[in-house]
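JOB MANIFEST
job_type = single_chain_structure
chain_count = 1
residues = 160
[input]
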Amino acid sequence: MTLVRFTVIDAQGAASFVGPGHAIKMFAAACSRNPRSLAELLEFTRPYDADFITEVRNGLAVFDEHNTPDDPSAFHSIIEHASPSTLPPFRVLDEVTRDLSLQPVESGLILYNLGARRIVQVVNSYGELQREDRGRIRRSGQPTRMLYHYRLPDEWAIVP
């Protein structure tokens, strides 16, 4: 599996996680529904790969249980023993987590800025993101024969 770092920015802040390259299109498809928050983006993405979205949600819940904006030390201890591509989902709370959220893994780093309605392909060697495209729905991590289609509204920008 080819991995990409996804960093999502909304009015509450930013969260970052690593996932499969095919999720680039899944999140673009979810953006076509104009999500206002990370929670909405994940909910809109769920039909395309429910297992992956469950992993992200669970990872963020664990992060929230052990870290606060005033004390992200639990996550800092994880950073010491893990490579950037194996880090669990996290929220951007300080300079350390901000730097990690902007570090590409294997095939790239994609930022989804929900407020600005902008998708920034900082590094993307997985495949070119299109304004209109299709992808395969996944079940238990495996592609199915079912396809989803999306078209980003004009107000969304894709940067490089």
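[summary]
The chain has a mean pLDDT of 97.
The chain is about 30% helix and 30% strand.
exit_status = 0
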